[in-house]
């Protein structure tokens, strides 16, 4: 089964968060460890995600929230061949973070991490889920980020930062989306394995 790799946002995801809820539903879940949760330093976060990816065998579906979405985009850009799909929920605005891990006021003027993010499609299946009243990222900016990554955007309406405070503990929609993507990933892998087996069989038959 595909591995569900969970990347929390700044401050982490507590026991009531939807990421913790979904982790209990899928046996193949792995959390990214070694994240300085109170220090949003994007290179350190991206390196930790890449390190975890390197430890996993088989297909990977990344499920990220907030600042974790930004770090995940860098990790996916480095490992597009290892990541099968990604769901990025309520990405935080890169304009709110410095490269040194400081949270910035809006329009602060300090150098941000915006220039570090991929501006070309990531080359994997994915989607961005965003809200129209997210305090960490205006919806139009989230949609633009999704377009840069080559992902469609799901508009969740007035859902805040899509976290515990906005009522997103148990969240059936994310369960459905994950299930659909895992089915697609595993179906594609099965087709590829069958095609490889058929090719090998044909090759062996011609040789003999």
Explain what the structure shows.
The protein has 208 residues and is α/β, with parallel strands linked by helices. 38% of the residues lie in helices and 13% in strands. It contains five helices and six strands, in the order βαβαβαββαβα. Strands 2-1-3-4-5-6 form a six-stranded parallel beta sheet, with helices on both faces. The chain is globular.
> What share of the residues does DSSP label as strand, in percent?
5-15%
| Total helical elements | 5
What is the residue-mean pLDDT, rounded to a whole number?
92
User: Which structural class matches the secondary elements?
Assistant: alpha/beta
Low-confidence stretches: none
Helix content: 25-40%
- Cα-atom radius of gyration: 18 Å
- Give the oligomeric state of the chains in this entry, treating copies of one chain as homo and distinct chains as hetero: single chain
Largest sheet: 6 strands, parallel
Overall 3D shape: globular
Strand order, main sheet: write it out: 2-1-3-4-5-6
Distance between the termini: 35 Å
The string of secondary-structure elements, in order, is EHEHEHEEHEH
Notable traits:
208 residues, alpha/beta, six-stranded parallel beta sheet, 13% strand
Question: What are the SSEs and their pairings?
Answer:
Layout: E1 3-7, H1 18-23, E2 29-31, H2 42-54, E3 60-65, H3 67-78, E4 85-89, E5 125-130, H4 139-149, E6 153-155, H5 172-207
Parallel strand pairs: 1-2, 1-3, 3-4, 4-5, 5-6
């Amino acid at each position: 089964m595909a591995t569900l790799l969970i990347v929390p946002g700044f401050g982490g995801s507590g026991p009531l968060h939807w990421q913790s809820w979904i982790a209990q539903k899928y046996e193949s879940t792995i959390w990214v460890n070694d994240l300085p949760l109170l220090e949003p330093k994007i290179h350190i976060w991206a390196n930790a995600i890449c390190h975890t990816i390197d430890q996993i065998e088989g297909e990977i579906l990344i499920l990220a929230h907030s600042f974790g979405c930004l770090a995940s985009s860098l990790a996916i850009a480095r490992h597009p061949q290892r990541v099968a799909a990604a769901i990025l929920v309520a990405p935080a605005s890169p304009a709110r973070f410095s490269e040194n891990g400081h949270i910035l006021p809006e329009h602060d003027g300090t150098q941000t991490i915006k220039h570090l993010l991929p501006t070309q499609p990531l080359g994997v299946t994915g989607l961005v889920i965003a809200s129209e009243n997210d305090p960490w990222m205006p919806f139009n900016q989230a949609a633009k980020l999704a377009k840069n990554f080559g992902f469609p955007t799901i508009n969740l309406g007035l859902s805040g930062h899509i976290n515990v405070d906005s009522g997103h503990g148990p969240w059936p929609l994310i369960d459905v989306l994950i299930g659909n993507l895992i089915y697609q990933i595993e179906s594609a892998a099965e087709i590829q394995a069958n095609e490889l087996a058929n090719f090998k069989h044909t090759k062996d038959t011609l040789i003999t």
